[in-house]
Write a structure and sequence with these properties.
Elements: H1 2-18, H2 22-33, H3 38-44, H4 54-90, H5 109-123, E1 127-128, E2 134-136, H6 137-140, E3 165-167, H7 173-181, E4 186-195, E5 206-216, H8 221-236, E6 242-249, E7 252-261, E8 280-289, H9 291-296, E9 305-312, H10 313-321, H11 334-337
Parallel strand pairs: 1-4
Antiparallel strand pairs: 2-3, 4-5, 5-9, 6-7, 7-8, 8-9
Helix pairs in contact: 1-4, 2-4, 5-10
Bound molecules: phenylalanine.
């Protein structure tokens, strides 16, 4: 029996040494020390050993059992450490690998330009107002002092929705809507889409304007020049020069078209393609609000005066970013749009 015991002990030691996982060690524990384990059975058969040999065999059995228990604990610690190391190896993260960049959307260049311009006027104390894209003839034309036969009402310029409604041809009707519902003093900017029957390199049937107007007592043309000069220098740089040319709009008197010194040639180049050699670029329509407009909204033109201006957003964006074709804003070519992220 002692020989069998020693053989069993050696086998068990060898097997434990080869065990690679906690479950293998656990299987060996069951095989030798479990309820019907090989060593357990030997201990149980001790009673068959002749009484005089029992103490010696019993002592050896106990010693082997304890040694085996200790070996199992050691083997367990070893395979657990191995398993932990393997797990760490398997789950290892290389923190030096560059991350995957998420594709983020960005604001459209026209929207960016609108925000930039609106921010300049908001910093001057102007409020933002908006109005409907679908307007009636009264707000788009009549209240703005367009005579009944004015060519701007013509089918060739205006998109009509039906007899009563049209797509607004400018943001000026919002002047009327704001003045109808509020009293001066007013400082308002109106960003929005506008529509005209036009389509070429520099005209799109849908485009954007920013309207601005200020109504108070004793507002003068000097205020208009001061505000516009400040705003255009904020927008195009401190060296920007402005030129006011006499012009005509039904809703302003006097009226002016405002040019800025060419951003490309600085007004120097006779060959300049952008200003066509003139040195100036038209950027705004403006003027003092016509007394007939004040009358239409119930203001007393003897008491209040005001200026108004309208600016083409795409025009500004094309100059700022040197874009040759207005249609690139609406063709959604990602290679174009990604330049404005
Ligand atoms: N509404 C005019 C246009 O679209 C621009 C403008 C606005 C002119 C305000 C004068 C005053 O052409």
């Amino acid at each position: 029996m002692l020989e069998g015991l020693e053989g069993l002990y050696q086998d068990a030691l060898a097997a434990l040494q080869k065990a690679k996982s906690t479950s293998e060690v656990e299987q060996l524990r069951v095989r030798y020390l479990g309820r019907n384990g090989e060593l357990t059975l030997l201990v149980r058969s001790l009673r068959e050993v002749p009484p005089e040999e029992r103490p010696r065999v019993g002592a050896r059995l106990n010693a082997v059992k304890e040694a085996l228990e200790a070996e199992i604990r050691t083997a367990l610690e070893r395979v657990r450490a191995d398993e932990e190391r393997q797990a760490l190896e398997r789950d290892r993260v290389d923190v030096t690998v560059p991350g995957r960049r998420r594709a983020l959307g960005a604001l459209h260049p026209v929207t960016q330009t609108i925000e930039e311009i609106v921010d300049i006027f908001v910093a001057l104390g102007f409020e933002v107002a908006t109005g409907p894209d679908i307007e009636d003839d009264y707000h788009n034309f009549t209240a703005l002092n367009f005579p009944p036969d004015h060519p701007a009402r013509d089918m060739q310029d205006t998109f009509f929705v039906d007899e009563s409604y049209l797509l607004r041809t400018h943001t000026s009707p919002v002047q009327i809507r704001v003045m109808e519902s509020r009293k001066p003093p007013l400082r308002i900017v109106v960003p929005g889409a506008t529509y005209r029957h036009d389509d070429d390199l520099t005209h799109s049937p849908m485009f954007h304007q920013i309207e601005g107007f200020l109504v108070d007592e004793r507002v003068s043309m000097a205020d208009l020049k001061g505000v516009l000069t400040y705003a255009m220098r904020e927008l195009f740089g401190p060296e920007t020069r402005l030129r006011f040319r006499a012009s005509f709009f039904p809703f302003t008197e006097p009226s002016a078209e405002v040019d800025i010194g060419c951003l490309i040639c600085g007004g120097q180049g006779s060959q300049c393609r952008v200003c066509k050699g003139s040195g100036w670029l038209e950027i705004l329509g403006a003027g003092m609000i016509d007394p007939n407009v004040f009358a239409a909204v119930g203001y007393d033109a003897e008491k209040v005066s005001g200026f108004a201006f309208g600016l083409g957003v795409e025009r500004v964006a094309m100059l700022k970013y040197q874009i040759a074709d207005i249609r690139t804003f609406t063709t959604n070519d990602l290679r174009f749009l990604r330049q404005f992220v």
